[in-house]
Design goal:
A two-stranded parallel sheet has the order 1-2. α2 links the parallel β1 and β2. The protein is 65% helix and 5% strand. The two termini are 25 Å apart. The protein is globular, with a radius of gyration of 16 Å. It is mainly α.
C-alpha cells in the first residue's frame, strides 16, 4: 500500500523529471510550449501546430485547463507533460483514440522506468496517470476531476494495470 508521504515524494520526483524531459524535447524540436485555453485535440491539428511552431519558431500550444489537481506539483508540470505527450503523438503518428493513447502512455512509463527503475512508484504513477486515465475516459467519457486523487486511490488500493501484459501478449507493445 502506498502512503501519502511516498506518493508525494514520488510526485515531486516525477514532476522534476517531466520538466527536464520537456526542456530536452524543446531543444530537440527547436521550440517550447505555451499554455492556451484552446489547444489542438486531434492528430491532424497537433501535427499542424507542430509544423507551424517549427516553421515560425513559436511556442507549441498546450491545453491550460484541468491542471490544478494533477500528479504534478503545479500546473507547469502538467503543461510540460502535455507538451511531451503531444510531441510523441507527432513523432509516432499516434491518433488520440484509446489504443494510441495507451501506446503513448506505455512510452511515458518506459521513459520514467529508465530514470527511476522498473516498477518504481514514479513509473506506477505515470501508468495510472496515462493509461489508467485513458481507460477511465474510455468508460466514462471524461477524465477524473481530481486526477491526483484518482491515481493515489488506485495505488493505495493495490490495483495493478495488467493492461501492459495483455498489450505485449497481443503484439501491440514490446515487453
Amino acid at each position: 500500500m502506498t502512503t501519502q508521504y511516498e506518493f508525494d515524494r514520488a510526485r515531486a520526483n516525477l514532476h522534476h523529471f517531466v520538466l527536464r524531459t520537456a526542456r530536452n524535447v524543446a531543444r530537440s524540436v527547436g521550440f517550447g510550449y505555451q499554455e492556451v485555453a484552446d489547444a489542438p485535440e486531434t492528430l491532424q491539428s497537433i501535427r499542424e501546430a507542430f509544423l507551424k511552431a517549427r516553421k515560425d519558431r513559436q511556442a507549441f500550444p498546450v491545453y491550460s485547463g484541468a491542471s490544478d489537481k494533477t500528479v504534478y506539483l503545479n500546473p507547469e508540470g502538467n503543461w510540460a507533460f502535455r507538451f511531451w505527450h503531444d510531441i510523441l503523438h507527432v513523432i509516432h503518428a499516434s491518433d488520440t483514440k484509446f489504443e494510441d493513447e495507451v501506446k503513448l502512455g506505455y512510452l511515458h512509463v518506459q521513459a520514467v522506468e529508465k530514470e527511476f527503475g522498473k516498477g518504481s512508484l514514479e513509473a506506477r504513477i505515470m501508468g495510472w496517470d496515462t493509461v489508467g486515465q485513458s481507460a477511465y475516459h474510455a468508460i466514462l467519457g471524461n477524465f477524473p476531476e481530481d486526477q491526483a486523487g484518482f491515481v493515489f486511490a488506485s495505488l493505495k488500493s493495490g490495483a495493478k494495470l495488467e493492461l501492459w501484459e495483455e498489450l505485449a501478449r497481443n503484439g501491440l507493445i514490446e515487453a
